[in-house]
Design goal:
This is Exodeoxyribonuclease III. Keywords: Hydrolase, Magnesium, Manganese, Metal-binding. GO terms for molecular function: double-stranded DNA 3'-5' DNA exonuclease activity; metal ion binding. It holds the Pfam family Exo_endo_phos. This protein is α+β, with helices and mostly antiparallel strands. The protein has one domain: Deoxyribonuclease I, Chain A (4-Layer Sandwich), CATH 3.60.10.10. 25% of the residues lie in helices and 27% in strands. It has 7 helices and 14 strands. The protein has a 6-stranded mixed β-sheet with strand order 3-4-2-1-14-13. The chain has a 6-stranded mixed β-sheet with strand order 5-6-7-8-12-9. A two-stranded antiparallel sheet has the order 10-11. α1 links the parallel β1 and β2. The protein is globular and about 45 Å long.
């Protein structure tokens, strides 16, 4: 079973790149972030034409997540378990943003609980947006504890907007004041690992130096000035079955690409 995460940075602008990636790499389960589309306007027909089932949790113009499962490989449509974590946005009266979608993904080899997330950026900090980020991470930890208690094979993945370690960024100095690298952000992420979740990319790349994001500005892609903010966390039931992880870096270099590269995990179930 191959499970992947991809911050697509606007499904309508990047649809050709998404369809290419799906056709070329064929993940069993694909989790998308920043679809920037309402559910009713999401281009599901084009994705379904490739044989994928589609479940979305969207909102107009911002945020939004989706989970795709490969029907051609024998996967059932994703079964929704929960959408949202009950945390309202930083603006008064804004309501909850579309950032979390949890499903059961069932294929020929079994069922895996998959939680797709787009964690708040938190900039500028300090301020309401950073406070929102930390509150959201606290709610995520509570939800992950509930999943843990079910003792099901589980994968929590997506754009965490956290650079966990100094060797996860091209320049510590360049990002030192960013919300992605603040001690509070890193501490909240570290607590998830302390609860027993396994960082798949870190486990198989213990020396760091793996990037998943390159900004559009200042020639970041051309200079390889990137960092790692897209993560895959595994419950013990999945960590014991991890076969491989990787980053589809080449897809970041294509025309009109997302500023993120897809990150994937292979499990033996």
């Amino acid at each position: 079973m191959k499970i992947a995460t991809f911050n697509i940075n606007g499904i309508k602008a990047r649809l050709p790149r998404l369809l290419e990636w799906l056709a070329e790499t064929r993940p069993s389960v694909a989790c998308l972030q920043e679809i920037k589309s309402q559910d009713e306007t999401f281009p599901g027909n084009e994705i379904e034409a490739l044989g994928y089932h589609v479940l979305t949790h969207g909102q107009k113009a911002f945020n939004g997540v989706a989970v795709l499962t490969d029907g051609k490989a024998g996967f059932e449509p994703p079964k929704e378990i929960q959408r949202g974590l009950g945390i309202e946005g930083p603006k008064e009266g804004e309501g909850e943003q579309a950032r979390y979608l949890e499903v059961d993904a069932t294929g020929p080899d079994g069922t895996v609980r998959v939680a797709c997330l787009y964690l708040p950026n938190g900039n500028p900090h300090p301020g309401p947006k950073f406070n929102y980020k930390l509150a959201w991470m606290a709610a995520l930890r509570t939800r992950m504890a509930a999943i843990w208690a079910e003792e099901v094979p589980a994968v929590v993945l997506g754009d965490f907007n956290v650079i966990p370690e100094d060797d996860d960024v091209f320049s510590v100095r360049a990002m030192a004041n960013d919300a992605l690298m603040q001690p509070e952000s890193r501490g909240a992420y570290a607590r998830l690992l302390g609860d027993g979740w396994t960082d798949a990319v870190r486990t198989l790349n213990p020396r760091g130096g793996v990037w998943t994001y390159w900004d559009y500005q200042a020639g970041a892609w051309q200079r390889d000035h990137g960092f790692r903010i897209d993560h895959i966390l595994l419950s013990p039931e999945c960590a014991d079955r991890m076969r491989a992880v990787g980053v589809d870096k080449a897809h970041r270099g294509r025309e009109k690409a997302s500023d993120h590269a897809p990150v994937w995990l292979e499990l033996s179930l």
